[in-house]
Amino acid sequence: MTTVPTPQSSRPGDLSPEEFRAAAHAAVDWIADYLEHPERVPVRSRARPGDVTSALPASPPKHGEPLADMMADFERIILPGITHWNHPSFFAYFANSSTYPGILGELLTAGLNANAMMWITSPAATELEQVTLDWLRQLMGLQDGWFGQITDTASVSTFYALAAAREALGLDIRARGMAARHDLPTLRVYCSEHAHSSIDKAVIALGLGHDNLIKIPADEHFRMRPEALREAIATDLALGHLPMAVVPCIGTTSTTSVDPVPEIVRIAKEFDCWVHVDTAYAGPAAIVPELRYLLDGVEGADSMVVNPHKWLFTPVDCSVLYTKRPDALRQAFALLPEYLVTKDQDQVVNLMDYGIQLGRRFRALKLWMVLRAFGADGLAERIRFHCELARDFAGMVHFEGGWELTAPVPLSLVCFRYAPAHASEDAIASMNAAIMERVNAEGRAYLSHTKLNGKYTLRLAIGNIRTDRSHIEQVWSELRAAATAVAG
Amino acid sequence: MTTVPTPQSSRPGDLSPEEFRAAAHAAVDWIADYLEHPERVPVRSRARPGDVTSALPASPPKHGEPLADMMADFERIILPGITHWNHPSFFAYFANSSTYPGILGELLTAGLNANAMMWITSPAATELEQVTLDWLRQLMGLQDGWFGQITDTASVSTFYALAAAREALGLDIRARGMAARHDLPTLRVYCSEHAHSSIDKAVIALGLGHDNLIKIPADEHFRMRPEALREAIATDLALGHLPMAVVPCIGTTSTTSVDPVPEIVRIAKEFDCWVHVDTAYAGPAAIVPELRYLLDGVEGADSMVVNPHKWLFTPVDCSVLYTKRPDALRQAFALLPEYLVTKDQDQVVNLMDYGIQLGRRFRALKLWMVLRAFGADGLAERIRFHCELARDFAGMVHFEGGWELTAPVPLSLVCFRYAPAHASEDAIASMNAAIMERVNAEGRAYLSHTKLNGKYTLRLAIGNIRTDRSHIEQVWSELRAAATAVAG
Question: What residues of chain A, 413 to 452, have a C-beta less than 8 Å from chain B?
């Protein structure tokens, strides 16, 4: 049977290629202009809640609209609602940046729309991911034997790692679950009191129970105390609990403190615990030869997360989960329904087998381009420079009366605050909150805060590739002016 | 204290903007050329395992390299390893496509590098996500009252939904976990035997146990049998298990069969089960007025996943999780460490509170652009056309001696096979596998397969925006030629 062919012109296909070329070239120029002058816009958006919503139609259009209209609305409606992570004076959370090679990679990824779920669904996507992550491993000075995969965020990387740790217990939790089992003890996970909330979320999601994440006290420099870890494990064993995993952090969120990984690994291994190292932010610093010591002890761990979308100049999202035990991840996650069976499946790596996501965007392309565009030396030089800037800023704070540093500065984050003599802790907290809000509202810099042993503390996180000394001096000047205004 | 300013020129900043402009404009033109002539390349990559790896250096470069070199290597090394999801004769899995507005959105997203983790970290990213998902809800004809969020994949959306269902039981699993509790029964989840593997992975990851995912038998049209669901729940209750959630599917992966959602919802609600509807592929079809009935009954569900990166012309990744019970998601996931406290947190939606990911790429931008560029009518027209093409192809198969349809064709997927008279089931399976491999190896079309009640079946999935009748006729001609060759 044959059908009468419909003329091809009747196909309701894609939009006009000319329109795309015009809009996309305009977007490239807009991005280039934007990144050449990132200081033209306020760092933190000045939008009030609902501003963007009320500027948009409440319902979708019935008919298609030109791409040029969208570019215009992007500038008119969206842009004022953007907080500019690309601004060189973005010092909040962990600063990051979109760089030219990363944007180029994202553009090509969007054009290809390849899916790295299986090897055959784009062999280059899977193989480039493996090669690029092996490059990154070498850059960080780690030995061979780490299997890498890209996920969207450190939260997912850590979640996968702890899922593998759970399955590696050999208790068949995959098949039988954890509820209503008389043979199953409580499973315990250990991290420092300064660990990131992603560890908490992973433990909760896995059904281990937030109560079973044991926060080990830190020392006066915010590092996990190994003897406290040993005590906690011993106590748990005495109570009949099963120690499952320890998650030390190299570069905590509040202060970038570094847990003593070699000692933690020794203790964890003594009790057969999985060790997952969270170095989402600080990992790339090991590319700098004189900072390589940061990863000391990591070779003894089972898994590690490092985020190129934080301090490695790669656009979000790009987190990397490394593991020495990929089989445990497969054991936790691999599933092969008939509709995904392929003839070559045993000769290749199918990355869908190492996590829950089936669809996998081709994220390796941008990371490959970033590593190539900067090279080992270029990456090291930029990261080193950020650490220098942080030390300089710390120096400014240290020598200024009425201000104090509240944590050591091992990397590119400075914890500090205004603390005039005789002010109460409550007064200091409200003054610093007011100072921060004043500076942030000005729009020339953006900081965030934390609390350290109950002390309200400002954080200056340096990580944007366009940050230079002038931005550090500018924010310091604004902070002092704000302090004068607030205190006066 | 002041430091001596370093001249700005000493800053090891970003690369040359001119180099970026040149490379990005070239990439735009490359993408436009590629998408105007997507048939120039073989659909399925011809790379052999290791081809891409061996063409790449084993170690990263020491010094930075020009972006132009990367564009050249992209074409020379990466491209031959790409399986072209943009090819109009990509009929495997669920076909999808990258469209001009989607690519434009991804480009701007990469340039901004905004993070929608909290409202303040880019108000427009959070608000545009809410508005765009409300547009999509309206397009699909759903009532008000659905809270939407974008995730990367349906696997994560479903995982979140079931995590919320688990917490909504009120058993404090978040805090106490599931192991070593005497008060906790086995928690059971129900889906059809044709449900997607993402349900299995979610149940495994949540620690519920794969054994506790009950696959309900389907009828002869591959739809969950409601009376079998009722029986399974009753049996479980008699055994002391706790029915937690039911996951009906609208558009299963193997055949796009549609479970009877209204009846399933009625039964589930009788037993206080959470209902999560998996309509990752088929949901957008409800934009077509005469297909709106597909979502009948969904209003009674608790959550639903629909993937714009499948049949809504949006580049991967973009999955949408809708729920009527956002508080349950918050209850399952929200956590507020001090370093994420903001002054306005109670007046705004902070999307980090509804899942495990903290970092959230600005994915709403591309979806907003797709919805605007095509408009309600344009989207409906294209989806309707794909269904027409599928019916036409089904007609060709139905009227051809020796071939048979193996499932109904409610949407844009055709299940069929070569089944000459008197051939055994084994012979049919190996002939069809050989036919598929022959066609796929030719490079002009790409199909995948499944098994239905043990019967090996080919799948022709139509979903690429550039597919027209000529591609359907071409693949049909290739299939018949391959059958002749294989059988002869």
Answer: 437, 448-451
Q: Do A451 and B365 touch (CB under 8 A)?
A: no
CA–CA dist B474, B444 (Å, integer): 8
Q: Retrieve residue A241's tokens.
A: 């609990």
Are residues A81 and B112, on separate chains, in Cβ contact within 8 Å? no
Structure tokens that stand for B485 in this block: 């060759």
Provide CATH 3.90.1150.170 ranges for chain B. 18-44+83-98+375-488
Q: Which of B81, B177, B468 sits opposite A208 (nearest CB)?
A: B177
Residues of chain B numbered 222-241 and touching chain A (CB < 8 Å): none
Instruction: Give tens-digit pLDDT for A5-41.
Output: 444 445 777 889 999 999 999 999 999 999 999 999 9
Whole-number Å distance between alpha carbons of B18 and A182: 66
How does pLDDT run along chain A (488 residues), one tens digit per residue? 344 444 444 577 788 999 999 999 999 999 999 999 999 999 999 999 999 999 999 999 999 999 999 999 999 999 999 999 999 999 999 999 999 999 999 999 999 999 999 999 999 999 999 999 999 999 999 999 999 999 999 999 999 999 999 999 999 999 999 999 999 999 999 999 999 999 999 999 999 999 999 999 999 999 999 999 999 999 999 999 999 999 999 999 999 999 999 999 999 999 999 999 999 999 999 999 999 999 999 999 999 999 999 999 999 999 999 999 999 999 999 998 888 888 777 889 999 999 999 999 999 999 999 999 999 999 999 999 999 999 999 999 999 999 999 999 999 999 999 999 999 999 999 999 999 999 999 999 999 999 999 999 999 999 999 999 999 999 999 999 999 999 98
CATH topology of domain B115-361: Aspartate Aminotransferase; domain 2 (3.40.640)
How many CB atoms sit inside 10 A of residue A54's CB? Answer: 11
Interface residue of B59, B69, B97, B100 to substitute, partner A, most A CBs within 10 Å: B100
ipTM of predicted assembly, 2 dp:
0.96
Domain with CATH 3.40.640.10 in chain B: 115-361
Instruction: Report CA dihedral (B400, B402, B408, B413) to the nearest 10 degrees.
Output: -80
Closest CA to A322 of A206, A161, A162, A165: A161
Q: CA of B446: which chain A residue's CA is closest?
A: A121
Reply yes or no on domain B18-44+83-98+375-488 having CATH 3.90.1150.170. Answer: yes
Question: Of A123, A152, A448, which has the smallest distance from its Cβ to B152's Cβ?
Answer: A152
- Residue B440: C-alpha distances to residues B98, B396, B463 (Å): 21, 20, 18
Residue in B31, B130, B359 closest to A317 by CB: B359
Contact B63 A375 (CB under 8 A): yes
List all residues of chain A from 283 to 342 with a beta carbon under 8 Å from chain B. Answer: 309, 315-317, 319, 332-333, 335, 337-341
CA distance B250 to chain A (A): 17
Q: Check residue B181 and give its pLDDT.
A: 95
Per-residue pLDDT tens for A64-90?
A: 999 999 999 999 999 999 999 999 999
